[in-house]
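Escalation from tier 1.

The customer reports that the assembly of two entities below gives different structure tokens on two consecutive runs. Tier 1 could not reproduce it. I'm attaching the input and our single run for tier 2 to review.
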Amino acid sequence: MQPEPNAELDTVVMKFGGSSVAEPKQIRHVAQRLVAARERGLRVVGTVSAMGSTTDSLLELARRVSPSPHPRELDMLLSTGERVACALVAMAVHDFGQEAVSFTGSQAGILTDAVHTKAKIREITPVRVLSALDDGKIVLVAGFQGFSRDTMDVTTLGRGGTDATAVALAAALGASCEIYSDVPGVFTADPRMVPEARKLSQVSYEEMLEMAASGARVLMLRAVELARGRQVPIHARSSFSDEPGTWVQDAPGMEQPIVSAVTHSVDEVLFVLRDVPDRPGSAAAVFEAVAAEHVNVDTVLQNSALETAELSFSVPLDDVPGARLAVERARSTLGPVALEELADLGTVSLVGAGMRSHPGVAAKMFRTLADDEINISLISTSPIKITVMIPRADVERAVRALHAAFGLGDEATAGAAG
Amino acid sequence: MQPEPNAELDTVVMKFGGSSVAEPKQIRHVAQRLVAARERGLRVVGTVSAMGSTTDSLLELARRVSPSPHPRELDMLLSTGERVACALVAMAVHDFGQEAVSFTGSQAGILTDAVHTKAKIREITPVRVLSALDDGKIVLVAGFQGFSRDTMDVTTLGRGGTDATAVALAAALGASCEIYSDVPGVFTADPRMVPEARKLSQVSYEEMLEMAASGARVLMLRAVELARGRQVPIHARSSFSDEPGTWVQDAPGMEQPIVSAVTHSVDEVLFVLRDVPDRPGSAAAVFEAVAAEHVNVDTVLQNSALETAELSFSVPLDDVPGARLAVERARSTLGPVALEELADLGTVSLVGAGMRSHPGVAAKMFRTLADDEINISLISTSPIKITVMIPRADVERAVRALHAAFGLGDEATAGAAG
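Tier 1 run:
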């Protein structure tokens, strides 16, 4: 059954990632998809990321100019990548016979806070977008950026910000949201790692949040959060085919699988703080400092045995310098806590909305790993996810073993707890 | 004598071309120059072009996406080049210990008409620039761009638009204007062609206009026009040294040289229209059509002998397609005029504010060329310039001969009509 939520809506926001607009040929292809949607009678908004590795090249350029580029200027710099891509797509749309107009984040009314390089969208006032749609135009909105009404400066939303742009625009326009990428949807595991991985036709916001947080790269966490908050259905699908992908939405009537997917990550570093005073406020001191550095914390775990606690948290590689700074700052409150950084670990997670009523899932997961002689360093659970940290070298083996043990490759028995 | 006009002004606009910001190292060098000016107590505005050949690369990208890129989108695309360069310079300024802030053309309040890719500056409302200067910051303004208040769209000013940005900003801010490039000033002839060519310490606006129009590439025609209209002195000087360059300004008391420089151009095509009806309105029909295509016409000449006239005009290579279109359109009014395009000619001009009172200059110029057996296809004069069109292959020889004949390499006898 192909879900068709919001079929009554006539506006669609279509988002294309950087790898979908890396070359002129692909840009024309994206334009064709937008034109096809327009010709089906939809009001069409496209939002695209910078071409290919443009953002990385701009970052590299900034680092060659300055050891620590000024954040405001970094945003001025990085925001150009999406503008280039949008203008090019708009040109190509014209060539396919439809009118198009591209807008920068600020022209599209995307208002953010003033936290440069990691701004959050506060509000969208899409006056010019609506007016262009009313004129029958295909509208391109530069992803990944907005502007702060306080400072009137250009801001960027951080990595994956274009997904957030798409969802926020869809919410503001009452549109559905299609997120195109080089993968055809959300899979039961990374297909490059598990050949028999299966595309899911639907996942709930909650499951998608856990998957995104634990390594599935199809959708960015913040975009899913935004979508859940505003109940915007997301259709994650392939740039290269018309096949349906995966719908991310809440569909109350449906039976929820016990385990939907195995996800993994090998891009994290585990910070372990020892000798943390076991008193109220210790964890707060650490995570306030971490938040002040705008570090994204994934897993957090605290073992409090005696008079001092052990506090562990994992952060993405990019955020390691910020996390170090935060720990340094927290030491002024906590005293001389010991810090260890573990960079040779990876995480593997089982995600499934149905597991909250099936306590046997964790036991089966640990047994599967034990049978494969994979040692677990850390366990962390949420109601619908179990995450283990294991040696990075064992991640691929663990993913395959768990995918097989929970029968995720088999449509009929998918997710059976055994 | 080194002229020091506007020494009482404390604001300076410093413009750097694309070749001065092509690499991170050069960007830091530009930042150092801005910082040095700030540390001498000046209020400093920098305006820079896109890095190296960025604009050409973006144009090439546009052409790979679309055979005829939509002008509005082309402006969105091209305007990013200067934003990148400005943001990078601002970052580098921070590293040298001064505060800096970069603005896009629209943030800097550069209002233009809505003629995409060739917009003209209408007005500057530099509210944010002034406020940042008051805060002691070095302000970077993205060159070559502005925005239309009518459409709220980003516009670009066409080739050399950053010079226009600099002059218009200087006028709006009551500042002096320094234009830095890889040449140390305005020369009596192209030094690559004439080794004994001499740097001029001063030229009048009028002379500079004629030089720019006839091939001198140090300053763009429109920037000089703007400067003359607003009486903004321009100091054209080298990015690589602190030596004074050439001041472009009107200094009434000074004696004006008879001949200041020999200029040349080999990038033009001569359009010759034959059998043009010799009646009022013929030339208007042609040049209205030409203006509608925003083609820059250089030399115009009409010979009206019998019942039909011959009308010739030269256009830069870039504008040839537009000129063809314009002629096609004019034929509907004029009837079947014959068109010939001559692409193997070049122009050589003598420019000098003093020549208006020395009629012997033309005769000496033609004699010099005749002695070198260089055939003249077309002659066109203004009160302070004589231009000849000659075979392109003879241009270099003609420039050398004229430079020598008028003694331009020799400070003492410079410009003597002989």
